[in-house]
Design a protein that fits this description.
Two copies of one chain form a homodimer. Chain A is of the alpha/beta class. Chain A has two domains: 1-100 and 267-347, Isopropylmalate Dehydrogenase, CATH 3.40.718; 115-254, Isopropylmalate Dehydrogenase, CATH 3.40.718. Chain A has helices at 16-31, 47-53, 59-66, 85-97, 160-175, 192-206, 219-228, 240-253, 294-306, 310-325, 334-346; strands at residues 3-12, 36-42, 70-75, 102-108, 124-130, 140-143, 151-159, 181-186, 213-218, 235-238, 261-265, 273-277. In chain A, strands 2-1-3-12-11-4-5-10-8-9 form a ten-stranded mixed beta sheet, with helices on both faces. In chain A, strands 6-7 form a two-stranded antiparallel sheet. In chain A, helix 1 packs across helix 9 (294-306) and helix 5 (160-175) packs across helix 6. The two termini of chain A are 23 Å apart. At the A-B interface, helix 4, strand 6, strand 7, helix 5 and helix 6 of A face helix 4, strand 6, strand 7, helix 5 and helix 6 of B. Bound molecules: 3-isopropylmalic acid (2 copies). One 3-isopropylmalic acid sits between chains B (77, 87, 91-92, 244, 278, 280) and A (189-190, 220). One 3-isopropylmalic acid (IPM) sits between chains A (77, 87, 91, 244, 278, 280) and B (189-190, 220).
């Protein structure tokens, strides 16, 4: 039965458009000749739009994006725009408005991939980062700005509703994995209010998943494990900010952010989920075809998996794995890597 | 001229008493035969005291501690005490009450020290972590605890006063180092209120230090640099929570938390400064003489330096360096390492 995926594409800033072009190339290649087709709508959002109109994401944009089945996003942020404007006005606004409460970030160390660690071990874990609460809510403010009496606050907001749903999702993912282990990462010895809510929630949900081994690490200790024993992790569930920090570190130890994919998932299906590389817009290398599009391509695999097309997702993962194994250290452009991956998934 | 250091000793929980005993042993050894003597007062604070009396740190304790020239602390926290009680009621209460706004954490990769990194490079930086603000203030709270409608908040508080004084201290430290580089670590693209205060403050103070090269990294990116290029860092200035996280990671890449020293410094001298290893109470190895006391011994060196005894501090650093170089991988007890270091500083 023929099927059409309605895909919203937000290429964004910096290297965003370059890597997204390759992601779409591979998506088209993996679906070529099948009964699944893609209908794309490009959304011109990011620095240029903001400079031209002062807009980051209007209600109309959001309504139009919401009618799609999924979103592919490149990267957001530009040095010509004040810090925070695009991040909060566009990227985080999408994550919050579309209720992307599961920010999914797998970390796998593929064979042959260079890692800064001397003895990484067998690294294969997934971070389930909460996506709609924590210090990312935009609560807080500032008084007497620019004076010696300035005070600025940031409020981390955590609700039983918000914590429970993401913890439940993480347990379900742990249940589906062979090692069946879940690690809560927080800092409950200092952030006692939020920390104790997270902890009690994990303890409560754990009762429904008797097969899962539950572990805990403070976020500071988690960064130590990430470099001394990353193989200990299976599923990590954590707050929005801690998740931001440890997933960059996780990417660094598994070959760098050129390979790290992510999904901003609304598991309820009420809103389209959004898939994007973990890396940022990297303005320093933008426009030079130096960016590795693999993270975006792997994000396309997560997208296909999410849309119920696991076979096609697997073909992309396999293509990436064999491409990585075949890398001989010679430099390839963004387009060359995309072409190579497209050829592999088609083959 | 004879001089007496009045030292408050808080051994604390877990491995705290074990490592503190060795720190004092080395302190006594380095001062032996000199005209500097130490007058110690032990403060029984931590899990036992709390179990016996329900007290963590009373006004009387604090007043008594405040009359000392410096504090040596082992570690605080115990699984038999609810999470947060000792951390917030004792350790953080000391840091806040004694206005330890400079939390100083040097990271040096000594020659021969095992590191998880394949190519660490020449690592020698110091993190100046703010110690009296940020998400550590204990602001925030919880409503409807234990119900499906629970909401828990944590408030990061940042003031121009608090940020400026620590930034100024960090610039002065950078000025005294050969590379003269300062990196602000924050997350100003998301935590815009606090982030912009930090950023503006760094920009303003930078004008007074024209020789310093100023750099910026988001905290997530900083964790990447920490494993891919830690040699890029010279002085890092950052917020209380980000400092907590990156200094554990920094310790991990420079030989582990068994070697990481810290000072909670009140540069104004209004209150005694407090020196402690970065590691925690490690209840799993407590009482087994398995802990490495080197971090505590190096904290004693920071203490001596702070008290204007740089020659003695240097002797301790030298002793640690040569002890580390001579390590052959055979296991030594906490006491054996302390004995070896005491012999080296005396020699
Ligand atoms: C760009 C930024 C707002 C974003 C975040 O902090 O979530 C990025 O770092 C990420 O991890 O997706
Ligand atoms: C024990 C804990 C409260 C403390 C902190 O978070 O500051 C510790 O991790 C540290 O880094 O000194």
């Amino acid at each position: 039965m023929a099927r059409t995926i309605r895909l919203a594409v937000i290429a964004g800033d910096g290297i965003g458009p370059e890597v997204v072009a390759e992601g779409i190339k591979v998506l088209d290649a993996v679906l070529a000749g099948s009964d699944v087709s893609v209908e794309r709508t490009e959304f011109e959002l990011g620095a240029k739009r903001w400079h031209d109109t002062g807009e980051t994401l209007t209600d109309e944009d959001l309504a139009a994006i919401s009618t799609h089945d999924a979103i592919l996003l490149g990267a957001v942020g530009d040095p010509t725009v004040p810090s925070g404007v695009l991040e909060r006005g566009l990227l985080l606004k999408l994550r919050f408005a579309l209720d992307h409460y599961v920010n999914l970030r797998p970390s796998v160390l593929y064979p042959g991939v260079p890692t800064p660690l001397a003895n990484p071990g067998d690294v294969d874990f997934v971070v389930v980062r909460e996506g709609t609460e924590g210090p990312y809510t935009g609560n807080g403010g500032a008084l007497r700005v620019g004076t010696p009496h300035e005070i600025a606050t940031e409020v981390s907001v955590n609700t039983a509703f918000g914590v429970e749903r993401v913890v439940r999702d993480a347990f379900a993912r742990a249940q589906a994995r062979p090692r069946k282990k879940l690690t809560l990462v927080h800092k409950h010895n200092v952030l006692v209010n939020a920390g104790h809510l997270w902890r009690r929630t994990v303890d409560a949900v754990a009762e429904e998943f008797p097969e899962i081994t539950v572990d805990y690490a403070h976020v500071d200790a988690a960064t130590i494990y990430m470099v001394t024993d990353p193989a200990r992790f299976d599923v990590i569930v954590t707050d929005n900010l801690f998740g931001d920090i440890i997933t960059d570190l996780a990417a660094a130890i598994t070959g760098g952010i050129g390979l790290a994919a992510s999904g901003n998932v609304n598991p309820d299906g009420a809103f389209p989920s959004m898939f994007e590389p973990v890396h940022g817009s990297a303005p320093d290398i933008a426009g030079k075809s130096l960016a590795d599009p693999t993270a975006t391509v792997l994000s396309v695999a997560l997208l296909l998996e999410h849309l119920g097309l696991p076979e096609q997702a697997q073909r992309i993962s396999n293509a990436v794995t064999s491409d990585i194994v075949s890398r001989d250290g010679s430099a390839r452009s963004t387009v060359e890597i995309g072409d190579a991956l497209a050829a592999r998934v088609a083959g």
